[in-house]
């Protein structure tokens, strides 16, 4: 059952729907478990910004470097050692970032499948490159779903889906 956010125009998808969509895309088993909100160390997060039909920012999906690198690597079957190198460098390399962009682009489809309006990926931001509007949603969302994601054969990590307030 979808989780209602206080913003009635946007429904948060259930954890199982997120895991199923990610697993179908990367061709691996993906588990998702709802967890309490976790703070992310500055400079170690990746944020995907999604806009609605009116082009306004509606949703931000944030993940840590371990999960972002793992999802990007799993899409093209890149060894997990490369994810570990990116974590040490505190930044995804160009290939893993491009792959993660595709993963987050496809993940937008989980919203209308669960009764929410259609959203479109507008941008992927890493570390200090996160725009003020996206940081505002990260700091004070109207609704949120925090998940611990386990990608078979890769590193686990945290993902949060945050809905912008009115």
Could you give a short description of this structure?
The chain is of the alpha+beta class and 166 residues long. The chain has helices spanning 15-26, 65-75, 80-89, 94-107, 110-113, 132-139; strands at residues 3-4, 11-12, 30-34, 45-51, 57-64, 120-126, 143-151, 157-163. The longest helix has 14 residues, at 94-107.
Describe this structure in words.
- With 166 residues, the chain is α+β, with helices and mostly antiparallel strands.
- Helix content is 36%, strand content 28%.
- The strands form 2 sheets. A 6-stranded antiparallel sheet has the order 3-7-8-5-4-6, with helices on both faces. Strands 1-2 form a two-stranded antiparallel ribbon.
- A hairpin with a 6-residue loop joins strand 1 and strand 2 (11-12).
- Helix 2 packs antiparallel against helix 3 (80-89) and helix 2 (65-75) crosses helix 4 (94-107).
- 41% of the residues are buried.
- Mean pLDDT is 91; it is low at 4-8.
Task: Lay out the secondary structure.
Blueprint: E1 3-4, E2 11-12, H1 15-26, E3 30-34, E4 45-51, E5 57-64, H2 65-75, H3 80-89, H4 94-107, H5 110-113, E6 120-126, H6 132-139, E7 143-151, E8 157-163
Antiparallel strand pairs: 1-2, 3-7, 4-5, 4-6, 5-8, 7-8
Protein traits:
8 strands; six-stranded antiparallel sheet; 166 residues; alpha+beta
Determine the N-to-C terminus distance: 24 Å
- In sequence order, what are the helices and strands, one letter per element? EEHEEEHHHHEHEE
Number of helical regions: 6
Low-pLDDT stretches = 4-8
Net shape:
globular
User: How confident overall, as mean pLDDT?
Assistant: 91
What characterizes the major β-sheet? 6 strands, antiparallel
Strand content range: 25-35%
* Count of DSSP strands: 8
Q: Measured on Cα atoms, how large is the radius of gyration?
A: 14 Å
Q: Please give the order of strands in the largest beta sheet.
A: 3-7-8-5-4-6
| Helix amount | 25-40%
* Structural class computed from helices and strand pairing: alpha+beta
